[in-house]
Amino acid sequence: MKNIDTEIINDNEFDLICKYIKLRNESNISQSELARRVGVARSTIARMERNLHSISLGTFTKLLEAMNYKLEIVDKENINE
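User: That's the sequence. What structure does it adopt?
Assistant: Structure tokens below.
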């Protein structure tokens, strides 16, 4: 578990947010542009990225879709790392 700014999140959530931030940066999409595409406040994205606010799974998948990504569930025993 990671304690980030008084909110405790698990390692999987932390890793997922870090990967999302990396994808957003690599896609050269600003928080403002992504917020506009999805229809949420930029502050919602900023707080989620700083681990200050948990967003719904639906909103998270919309963020990914706006960047042309999708969330999948995979068997972790079959992941090649």
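The chain is about 50% helix and 5% strand.
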